[in-house]
Amino acid sequence: MNKGFTLIELLGVLAVLAILAVITVPIIQGLMEDSLEESKNIQEEAFEKAAESWAGRNAFSLPTANGGNISISLQTLVNDGFLETNSDGTITIGNSDEKYNLAKDCVRIENTGTATKTKYKYTFMENCSNPL
Q: Is residue 2 a part of any domain in this protein?
């Protein structure tokens, strides 16, 4: 009596494995993309918080008029000690190999308050023109 699997049984197992791969690979790729996007959003919120801290020390530089705004480059936030870079002097985007442009990417600080009550809005932006 021969023990082992027949060719049909082996092909059946391979077919089941192929179907599982077809179902799970796109799901896993989607989860990885979502994870990268979430990581990027958290990182950009950290840039905005760093700009808030910068604003606390540099209140004289903030826009005073409603609708006024300034842009603070990531490089300024690094130079002033509000952000840290990797050992190679860069900040990577999430868990990817892409990097933020420290000189061009910035946080825009906009005065959205009224004449009697100042309120600032902090927004991360890529490729700013003339950031501080």
A: no
